[in-house]
Design a protein that fits this description.
The chain has one helix and eight strands. By secondary structure, it is mainly beta. The strands form two sheets. It has a four-stranded mixed β-sheet with strand order 2-1-4-8, with no helix packed on it. The relative contact order is 0.26.
């Protein structure tokens, strides 16, 4: 599996290499995504975090980190940026009867 970082409106697709860190600066109205090159979907192991005003997307499996700089500084309720991650819902634990 290889990861691809996309910015929809910039029409940008960046193939990410394992054990690398990437940085982009947030742009108002942009839609960011981190996808598996084979499935076109967000891998299940993706973790999302906030570090200051930065949005962090990382994959432990691929040892990749993407920092979207100033995501919460540039973007606001009136001028939004988006990280669209299509991860599956967590599996619900159903008690045995």
């Amino acid at each position: 599996m290889a990861l691809i970082f996309t910015a929809k409106h910039a029409n940008s697709r960046t193939a990410l290499k394992a054990a690398q860190h990437y940085q982009v600066t947030a742009k108002v109205g942009e839609e960011y995504n981190l996808i598996d090159s084979v499935t076109g979907k967000t891998p299940e192991d993706i973790k999302v975090a906030r570090r200051g005003n930065n949005l962090i997307l990382c994959s432990d499996k691929e040892d990749v980190e993407v920092v979207i700089k100033d995501f919460w500084g540039v973007c606001s309720e009136d001028n939004q940026c988006y990280a669209k991650l299509d991860v599956p819902e967590p599996k619900q634990h159903r008690p045995e009867k």
